[in-house]
Amino acid sequence: MSATRLAALARTTDPHTMLRRFLALDAVVTGANGLVYLVLSGPVARFLGVDSGLLPGLGAFLVAYGAVVGLLASRDRPPAPAVRAVVEANLLWAALSCAALGLWLSPRTAGAVWTVLQAVTVLGFALVQYTGLKARQGSNV
Known about the structure:
Elements: H1 3-10, H2 15-39, H3 41-48, H4 54-73, H5 80-103, H6 109-139
């Protein structure tokens, strides 16, 4: 993805603002997903066809992770090592989501589709965050 396309998506050409917006979006989506898993774990587990004991733990993790990413997004200049850690964590989440489908989860169709969509979304976050980080580093600001 080019920096120009990324700037259009972020609605800014400022690389610091761009990166912060993509981190904030990740934080909001991840935190909301985690809250749904925590508050509605039973109905969501039944709909997805997964063990209801899985979702509260995932939910707590996602809420905490979303809070950390949100804190990072709130900084004027998020430190590059921390942003790289978020990118790597997102890549790991996407890979583990796909591996889980093949190795230990046997969800309903809705659960399989949700898992893949979630992995693609998180992979997208990693891509835009990495590109935003590179754009910021290239700006020498």
